[in-house]
């Protein structure tokens, strides 16, 4: 008689809740400063650094604009995430944008990333964890990619507040491989929840 061993439970953080249908759609990286990042079959996150082999990985800031201001500043923009739902919204406005083309490392689905508070941890796949640090501030290079796109990514709501839709930035809290199809679990910070600001 053959018996099947019981399945081992997936490691689960006590405060990390699975988001219904939340998953990784695509992953991207580039070892040079280009606007878009080509898609990859998988990426590896390195704790405290970012995406292995990506130009924006590092302990200190790597974005060219921020390096000019203070090259010793901590790198709060190690991993850039964008929801795929943004691409659907842009398509309704006549813009065709694919994963990685706005420079993100991880394209997600099923999560309103910009609504999450600062310090939220996203568990990506089996072991990788990123901690949200802030909103991406779209730059004028976006208009060079597709004319007029910048206006679609920065808008003013009914209350006169500026909303930024170009995704969120994060640092790597725990390393590991990430690939399309990986599930995403959300771990909200304890205590007061502070909205994401621009980093």
Order of helices and strands: EEEEHEHEEEHHEEEEE
The helix-and-strand class reads: mainly beta
Taking pLDDT < 50 over at least 5 consecutive residues as the criterion, the unreliable ranges are 1-14
Strand order of the largest sheet: 1-6-5-11-8-7-13
List the helices and strands and how they pair.
Layout: E1 16-28, E2 39-40, E3 43-46, E4 50-51, H1 64-69, E5 79-83, H2 84-92, E6 106-109, E7 121-124, E8 128-135, H3 141-145, H4 149-153, E9 154-156, E10 162-164, E11 168-174, E12 176-178, E13 183-187
Parallel strand pairs: 5-6
Antiparallel strand pairs: 1-2, 1-6, 1-13, 3-4, 3-12, 5-11, 7-8, 7-13, 8-11, 9-10
Descriptive account of the structure:
The structure is a single chain. Helix content is 13%, strand content 32%. It is mostly beta strands and 199 residues long. Strand 5, helix 2 and strand 6 form a beta-alpha-beta unit. The longest helix is centred in the middle third of the chain and has 9 residues. The N terminus is likely disordered.
């Amino acid at each position: 008689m053959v018996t099947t061993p019981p399945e081992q439970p997936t490691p689960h953080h006590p405060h990390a809740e699975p988001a219904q249908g939340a998953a990784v759609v695509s992953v991207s990286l580039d070892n040079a400063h280009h606007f878009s990042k080509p898609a990859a079959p998988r990426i590896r996150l390195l704790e405290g650094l970012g995406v292995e082999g990506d130009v924006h990985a590092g302990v200190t800031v790597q974005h060219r604009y921020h390096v000019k201001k203070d090259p010793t500043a901590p790198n709060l923009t190690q991993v850039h995430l964008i929801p795929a739902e943004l691409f659907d919204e842009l398509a309704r406005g006549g813009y065709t944008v694919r994963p990685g083309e706005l420079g993100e490392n991880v394209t997600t689905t099923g999560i309103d990333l910009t609504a999450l508070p600062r310090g939220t941890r996203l568990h990506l796949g089996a072991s990788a964890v990123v901690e949200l640090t802030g909103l991406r501030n779209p730059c004028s290079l976006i208009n060079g990619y597709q004319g007029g796109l910048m206006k679609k990514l920065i808008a003013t709501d009914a209350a006169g507040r500026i909303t930024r839709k170009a995704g969120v930035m994060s640092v790597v809290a725990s390393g590991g491989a990430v690939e399309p199809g990986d599930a995403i679990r959300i771990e909200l910070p304890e205590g007061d929840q502070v909205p994401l600001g621009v980093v």
